Amino acid sequence: MAFLIPTFLLVFFSLFNLLGINQHYFISQLINFGVGLVLFFVVRKIGTQFFRQNSGLFYWLFLGILIITFIIGIEAKGSRRWIDLFFFNFQASEFFKIFFLIFIVFHIVQLIEEL
Predict the structure, then answer these.
(1) Where are the domains positioned within the chain?
(2) Within 13 A of 49's CA, how many CA atoms are on the CB side?
């Protein structure tokens, strides 16, 4: 838990810098921080074994979401990277990166164990 202290300090420092620029950015950053913190504790509570066991499901799920992003995503600067969920924009590629790594590592470990 000690590693969270520098993270909190950096987040709050950036929030106060943003507050000097525009209140909208401050509130947006604060909401994003809160969502991230909740997700951190949810994932921590679930445990890594759940994600290892379901790595294939998450891999195919987010691969499908990436394809959907290509079809219905918001276009910005010539590319489609975000899905508009009305209250926030969702970038599936960031989640895909995590689950792709978990999927590949899980299968490499299985191959090594079979040898």
Answers:
(1) 1-45, 47-115
(2) 1
